[in-house]
Automatic annotation (TrEMBL):
<dbReference type="GO" id="GO:0046556">
    <property type="term" value="F:alpha-L-arabinofuranosidase activity"/>
</dbReference>
<dbReference type="InterPro" id="IPR037524">
    <property type="entry name" value="PA14/GLEYA"/>
</dbReference>
<dbReference type="InterPro" id="IPR044993">
    <property type="entry name" value="BXL"/>
</dbReference>
<comment type="similarity">
    <text>Belongs to the glycosyl hydrolase 3 family.</text>
</comment>
<dbReference type="InterPro" id="IPR002772">
    <property type="entry name" value="Glyco_hydro_3_C"/>
</dbReference>
<dbReference type="InterPro" id="IPR036962">
    <property type="entry name" value="Glyco_hydro_3_N_sf"/>
</dbReference>
<dbReference type="InterPro" id="IPR054850">
    <property type="entry name" value="Xylosidase_Xyl3A"/>
</dbReference>
<dbReference type="Pfam" id="PF00933">
    <property type="entry name" value="Glyco_hydro_3"/>
</dbReference>
<dbReference type="Pfam" id="PF01915">
    <property type="entry name" value="Glyco_hydro_3_C"/>
</dbReference>
<dbReference type="InterPro" id="IPR036881">
    <property type="entry name" value="Glyco_hydro_3_C_sf"/>
</dbReference>
<dbReference type="Pfam" id="PF14310">
    <property type="entry name" value="Fn3-like"/>
</dbReference>
<feature type="domain" description="PA14">
    <location>
        <begin position="464"/>
        <end position="606"/>
    </location>
</feature>
<dbReference type="InterPro" id="IPR017853">
    <property type="entry name" value="GH"/>
</dbReference>
<dbReference type="Pfam" id="PF07691">
    <property type="entry name" value="PA14"/>
</dbReference>
<dbReference type="GO" id="GO:0031222">
    <property type="term" value="P:arabinan catabolic process"/>
</dbReference>
<dbReference type="GO" id="GO:0045493">
    <property type="term" value="P:xylan catabolic process"/>
</dbReference>
<keyword id="KW-0732">Signal</keyword>
Length: 870
């Protein structure tokens, strides 16, 4: 245990000593840290006005100075490291962590993450900054939704398609974030989201009504991870989702929030709404008439904290009380949970009493955390194909080529809901570190999606006799008053406040605006494109007419076509304003698009036999409710799971030229790689690997690390194997209900070979309250040390309505070359639970079961033991 971590008993002793030394006794119960949090909260609730009570249920809760209540923000993110902050450790995206099947390492990562959150938070407060959105002690992670369909853009945030794997990983996340159960203060408040039955599409989530979800699918697939986080990890927050379930919005759904969450599972902490979910009641779902009725409906169902982009419905709670829609006593119940959570953090106590407040800034991105990021990136690497053992690559004098749109793409490695790291090792850099510089030829080759490249016209612009764009900045958001500075910009815009960088000298990091303007004379009549995006408010004007407007909390590049006439002058203006507490970013360029011709690339590769193509997707293509679309993509989701056409064409050209191709696929979801199994000699699924992702890829490609990752999702052959996106039935989905994908759940190759022997089972007949122990021999039959992941699945004999098999245990086991090791796995009674329609709940039924064990979910990779339950 780290030196700054102290148990509850230790805290009490420290508190008593401080009070004794100071001779100080608190006058009011809520100010006394020796009292239980709930008792303090009850006292404080009684001292508040109804309007004050309502305001403390906002995600951005205002200060109430008369009672010493500080401003508090409930919304921060820590999906894979502290998000929306600079100079932090960025770990691999959760879907990549899931491929490790290593929940012990996941725990260490989120213990490190919570250290960084605490250090950054207290440093900011001590520097005189407010508790702000995205830097608070409440973090809205983990996402334990089931990744049921590879088209969902947010599936990358999850731990895959399996309820058991998701549960194991999610519990580790929560325990790492919240700190030891016996500590007086919670380190952070974690959040299980999005409750429940939520996995896209992004474009319909505010209106979608899921009314045909079978009870069996609900209890066996969509709820288990949430139940585990509540009952096994004591998660302190649950976030309700946007869509409706059986006609009721999830944030106003009594069955979810009362019958299941509180009554059945005993959850006693805070329910937070997804952002805007309460206002959706009357703006999108149309189940409430206005904010007054929506606020009462959400609160009565069980929502405690409302998050909004703008305009709190919960501000109407006092009016709802006056109209008899809800009682003040009911509001007190919600506020009691909210304030208890804040007292549990120590947020209202002196820092001297809270050990977590002593975590120094030196822990942020320290060497230990960097190592954790690399270790997880290495364990996430999943080798899917290795024809003729082309991998690992040999370090010879022979040149190799590294090409592709993701080879030098550092932000791609950061994933989504990410922070900005101190440094990033991209994949090209990682490979270059393995060979002399003149032995590696690099070429981007193509874009991620677009079949054309843009020839920039930025340098052909001028204004006031000067080349480029004139940039004018104001230290307000309205472009009013005197400008701070005016300067000329010669290159395409790519500006950010990340890392505390000003857009220009004297420009504030927040509360500023900018105008970028120039004139362009068209050399010919043609169609040009503007490519632009911003975090903040951005408008693009051409000759005084607005042609593009965005208002976003992240930078998503969009493409705007525009026809110009030869000899005509065009006035171009880009207007920008920083918004909210977010970092500001802007990117802008324009020019002519030309077709890609791969013949020049092939000529450039003459004399080179081995080509590493680094492609796939990025979070510019897959993500949350994105306003931009490309062919095969819609609103952050996909409509086609194949690799984008331009990349497929590039790989075909390489194969036709006789190249040996190693394809490194970076994505947060399963790609339909059927064509690539033909055009590529090796396929490495690298996910979004975090700040050291490029080093991990290189270590695997050159054999410095033997890959051990296993797929946490099914890789389908193509989109034709998928049911409708809005169909939440599990029929034909995931490894549990389909058997002929391209690559199976749990599959992953190694540079060595393993043999799984016959398991020893302590019992083959048990009662429904007994466990079964398996001792499984694993032999490394190859010449390299390696790690195998032994997987145990359960199938109920004769259950034609149930899953083909379902994961109920796994174990990572390292085995030296030529040696044998034993995997000791215990299956508790819960491993045999399935939905019992006669009782309407999960139960262990008497009957015959099969235990299937091996190194993937494919039947050919599994051995069987039959057991019976009396």
């Amino acid at each position: 245990m780290k030196s700054y971590k102290t148990t509850g008993t230790g805290i009490a002793i420290i508190a008593a000593l401080i009070f004794s030394i100071n001779g100080f006794a608190q006058k009011l119960p809520y100010q006394n840290p020796n009292l239980p949090s709930e008792e303090r909260a009850k006292d404080l609730v009684a001292r508040l006005t109804l309007e004050e009570k309502a305001s403390l249920l906002f995600d951005q809760s205002p200060a109430i100075p008369r009672l010493g209540i500080k401003k508090f923000n409930w919304w921060s993110e820590a999906l894979h490291g502290l998000a929306n902050n600079d100079n932090v450790t960025v770990f691999p995206e959760p879907i990549g962590m899931a491929a490790s099947f290593d929940d012990s390492l996941v725990y260490k990562i989120f213990d490190a993450t919570s250290d960084e959150v605490r250090a950054k938070y207290h440093d900011a407060i001590r520097s005189g900054k407010e508790n702000r959105r995205f830097l608070s002690l409440s973090v809205w992670t983990p996402n334990v939704n089931i990744f049921r369909d590879p088209r969902w853009g947010r599936g990358q945030e999850t731990y895959g398609e399996d309820p058991y794997l998701t549960s194991r990983m999610g519990v580790a996340v929560v325990k790492g974030l919240q700190g030891p159960a016996d500590a007086k203060y919670r380190k952070l408040l974690a959040c299980a989201k999005h409750f429940a039955v939520h996995s896209g599409p992004e474009w319909s989530r505010h209106t979608l009504n899921l009314y045909q979800v079978r009870p069996r699918d609900l209890y066996e697939t969509y709820l288990p991870a949430f139940k585990s986080l509540v009952m096994d990890a004591d998660v302190r927050q649950v976030m309700c989702a946007y869509q409706r379930l059986d006609d009721e919005p999830c944030c106003g759904n009594n069955r979810l929030l009362q019958t299941i969450l509180r009554n059945s599972w005993g959850f006693k902490h805070v329910v937070v709404s997804d952002c805007g979910a309460i206002t959706d009641f009357f703006t999108s779902h149309k189940v409430s008439s206005d904010a007054v009725h929506a606020s009462a409906k959400g609160a009565l169902a069980g929502t405690d904290v409302e998050c909004v982009w703008e305009g709190y419905a919960f501000k109407s709670l006092p009016e709802a009380v006056s109209r008899g829609l809800i009682t003040e006593e009911e509001i007190d119940k919600h506020l009691l949970r909210v304030l208890t959570g804040r007292f549990d953090l120590g947020e209202m106590d002196d820092d001297a009493l809270v050990p977590w407040a002593a975590i120094p800034m030196s822990v942020v991105n320290n060497e230990a955390h960097r190592k954790l990021a690399l270790d997880m990136a290495l364990e996430s690497m999943t080798l899917l194909q290795n024809r003729n053992n082309i991998l690992p690559l040999k370090r010879t004098a022979k040149k190799i080529a590294v090409i592709g749109p993701n080879a030098e793409n550092s932000p791609m490695l950061w994933g989504n809901y990410n922070g900005r790291p101190v440094r990033t090792i991209n994949i090209l850099s990682g490979i270059q570190s393995k060979m002399p510089a003149n032995e590696v030829l690099y070429d981007k080759a193509c874009d991620l999606v677009e079949n054309k490249v843009t020839q920039s016209y930025f340098s052909q612009c001028s204004i006031d006799g000067k080349k480029g764009f004139k940039a004018t900045y104001w230290n307000n958001r309205e472009m009013k008053g005197d400008a701070v500075i005016t300067e000329q910009i010669a290159n395409p815009l790519k500006l950010t406040t990340a890392g505390q960088h000003e857009f220009a000298s004297g420009v504030q990091l927040e509360n500023f605006s900018a105008l970028y303007e120039t004139e362009f004379v068209a050399a010919s009549t043609e169609e040009i494109v503007f490519k632009c995006g911003a975090t903040g408010s951005m408008q693009l004007y051409v000759n005084g007419t607005m042609v593009r407007r965005t208002n976003n909390w992240r930078t998503l590049l969009s493409r705007v076509s525009y026809k110009v006439e030869s000899g005509k002058k065009y006035k171009i203006e880009v207007r920008f304003a920083q918004l909210n507490n977010w970092q500001a970013n802007i990117e802008f360029d324009f020019g002519k698009e030309v077709d890609i011709d791969f013949s020049s690339l092939i000529n450039k590769l003459r004399g080179i036999d081995e080509v590493v193509f680094v492609g796939g997707l990025s979070t510019l293509l897959e993500g949350e409710e994105m306003p931009v679309s490309y062919p095969g993509f819609k609103g952050g989701d996909r409509t086609d799971i194949q690799l984008p056409e331009v990349q497929r064409n590039c790989l075909k050209a390489l194969k036709a030229a006789g190249k040996k191709v190693i394809f490194v696929n970076c994505s947060g979801s399963a790609i339909g790689l059927m064509p690539e199994t033909e055009s590529c000699d090796a396929i490495l699924q690298a996910w979004y690997g975090g700040e050291s992702g490029g080093q991990a890829v290189a270590d695997v490609l050159f054999g410095d690390y033997n890959p051990s990752g296993k797929l946490p999702v099914t890789f389908y052959k193509d989109t034709t194997q998928l049911a409708g996106f809005e169909d939440y039935s599990l029929k034909g989905r995931t490894y549990r209900f389909m058997s002929d994908p391209l690559f199976q759940f749990g599959f992953g190759l190694s540079y060595t070979s393993f043999s799984i022997g016959t398991a020893q089972v302590n019992k083959t007949s048990i009662s429904n309250r007994e466990s079964i122990d398996l001792l499984i021999p694993v032999t490394n039959t190859g010449k390299r040390n390696g790690t195998e992941i032994v997987q145990v699945y359960v199938r109920k004999t004769g259950d034609t309505d149930g899953p083909l098999k379902t994961l109920r245990a796994f174990k990572r086991i390292a085995v030296p070359a030529g040696k044998r090791a034993m995997a000791n796995i215990s299956l508790p009674p819960a491993a045999f639970e399935f939905y019992d329609a006669s009782y309407g709940k999960m139960a262990v039924a008497a009957g015959e079961y099969e235990l299937l064990y091996g190194n993937s979910s494919a039947e050919k990779d599994l051995k069987v033991v039959k057991v019976s339950i009396k």
